[in-house]
Amino acid sequence: MRKTVAYFLFACFIVPCYAQKESSFEAFLRELNQSTIDKRQRLVSQYMSRVKTTPIVEGKNKVHFLWLGKADTVKVEGDLQKSWAIPAVLQKIDCGEKDFFHISYDIPSTALIEYDFIVDGKQTLDLLNPGVTQGFDFGDRNIFSMPDFVESPYLKPRYGINKGTVVQWTFKTSHELFTNQPISIYRPHGYSNDKTYPVLYVLDGTSSLYNRPYLNVINNLIYDKKIEPIVVVFVGYNDRWNDYVEKSKEFGQW
């Protein structure tokens, strides 16, 4: 009898604790799924008027991607989806005039994420996210950060410091798949042919060089003596799918 009473008291105590763990977004989804279509329109309108911007970040680790409108399928592609390789399908809730699409992730609290949507096969930005980063070869993308993200002090260009130089090559080889490969070579300030330098090879080199702050980071780290002067070889590509997927073994050997 004592065990039964103790279990009953424990159960009465523990249920409210679990209920408190439900996030406001999860509570909204539960109410939305349990409502009629007419009521769903009003609930979505009220909810979106409160959140105003997307994606929705709850706590330190949870993020919810949302899209509102009329469509058959909505997908999200980005850093979270196998590094832009496999878009994820958002779940659809019929809300009448406009449908509500959503997908959620648990991610590190220090993350900085880029993404965009694919609506019925057409790439589009998240219009409720004011964060947009300009892409060099892929077009614009949305961007957002989690609560504990801290931007590195080495990312931005500095003025008045010694900087390395970049020379462009076209790499020719007897391997017909990979000939005429664009190569860019970074040489540190004060480079000398008489010295030996560590070498860093960066694949997807064209995009990495022009669409990412590699040069800023390298110049700043060398200037602050965080690393020794290095040579960086940015290895371009002719066809990403060919180089990194279908012929990746041959590409690696090359």
Search tags:
single chain; 254 residues; alpha+beta; 6-stranded antiparallel beta sheet; 4-stranded antiparallel beta sheet; elongated; disordered N terminus
Provide the fold topology.
Layout: H1 2-20, H2 24-34, H3 37-51, E1 56-58, E2 62-69, E3 74-78, E4 88-89, E5 91-93, E6 99-106, E7 112-119, E8 122-124, E9 132-133, E10 141-145, E11 165-171, E12 181-187, E13 199-202, H4 205-211, H5 214-223, E14 231-235, H6 240-246, H7 248-253
Parallel strand pairs: 13-14
Antiparallel strand pairs: 1-2, 2-6, 3-4, 3-7, 5-6, 7-8, 7-10, 9-10, 11-12, 12-14
What does this structure look like?
The structure is a single chain. The chain is of the alpha+beta class and 254 residues long. The protein contains seven helices and 14 strands. The longest helix is centred in the first third of the chain and has 19 residues, at 2-20. The radius of gyration is 25 Å and the shape is elongated.
Biggest sheet record: 6 strands, antiparallel
Structural class: alpha+beta
Which regions are unreliable across 5 or more consecutive residues at pLDDT < 50? 1-20
**What distance separates the N and C termini?**
75 Å
Number of strands: 14
Helix content: 25-40%
Beta content comes to 25-35%
Q: Note the run of SSEs as H and E.
A: HHHEEEEEEEEEEEEEHHEHH
Shape: elongated
Radius of gyration: 25 Å
Average residue pLDDT: 88
